Amino acid sequence: MALARAWTNTSTCPIVGNNQKSDSFWNEVCNKFHALMQKEPYRRVNSIGSKYREMNKKISAFCGYYNNAHSNRPSGASDETVFAIAMSKYHTKEGSAFT
User: Fold this and answer.
1) Most buried in the list 47, 48, 49, 75, measured by CB within 10 Å?
2) What is a single molecular function from GO for this protein (predicted)?
3) What's the CA gap between 98 and 94, in Å, rounded?
């Protein structure tokens, strides 16, 4: 959660937005991540970027399964049911639970 928040807060900055060089962007994400964790820096910038890319790949896959389940929602199905369907499809297709 902290990494996702740090990335979002950095990428949606109203002052610089996404008009940043990669190095400065990931340095800022790293700084915000450590601040959110309330710890001294314990991860390097390249580690933060790598973890984010891995997390983003999984989130994108889940969003695909969720959007498909939502678009093909069974009649009368609740949001919880749609979510459960997406979770099940993710587990089946990806071979692990979506955490």
Assistant:
1) 48
2) glutathione transferase activity
3) 9
